[in-house]
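yo

u said u wanted the structure for the complex thing, so here. seqs first:
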Amino acid sequence: GPIMLDTYRVIADYSKSSKYELNLKAGDLLDIVEKSPNGWWFCQYDTQRGWAPASYLEPLDGPDESEEPEPNYAGELYKTTKGYTAVEDDELTLQLGETIEVIHKLLDGWWVVRKGEKTGFYPSMFLHSTGERREL
Amino acid sequence: SIKQPPQNPPPRPPADMRRKRL
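structre next:
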C-alpha cells in the first residue's frame, strides 16, 4: 500500500550549506522520508529531495513531544567521537574521547549532556554510546 | 538511494523557537 509520510512546516528561512540539503522558506510544507537522530531529516518538497535541519521544522499536527524521549536525569554514558567548540552560551566545549552523560536526546540533533558540574547542548553526531548506564 | 546526511552538525533552532522550548 501507499507509504504515509509525516508532513512538517518550515518555521524559518534556511539557506543550505552543503550539496544534498534543501533551501527552506518559512511556511513550506515538507514530507519527511527519514528522521536521522543527528538532526538532519531527509525530506521531499515538490519534486526535490534532500536533507533539512529538524530544528527548522514543526509537525503540521501540533507538537511532536510524543516522539521525543523523556529526559533521563541519571544520564546515559557516551563518548565524544569529535571535539566541538561551543558557539552559543548554552553549548558545551568538549575534546575528542571525553566521556559524558546524555540527559535528553532532542530530535533536532542537539542533545543535553552533562560533564561534571557543567550541562549544555552538544551535537549528537559527535557522540557514541558506550552502552553503559551511570551507576548512582 | 538516499545520500549520506551532511557531516556538519545541523543548525540550532532559530532563537525565538529555542526560547519557547525552555
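The two ends of chain A are 48 Å apart (CA to CA). The beta strands of chain A are 6-10, 29-35, 40-45, 48-53, 57-59, 76-80, 99-104, 110-115, 118-123, 127-133.
cya
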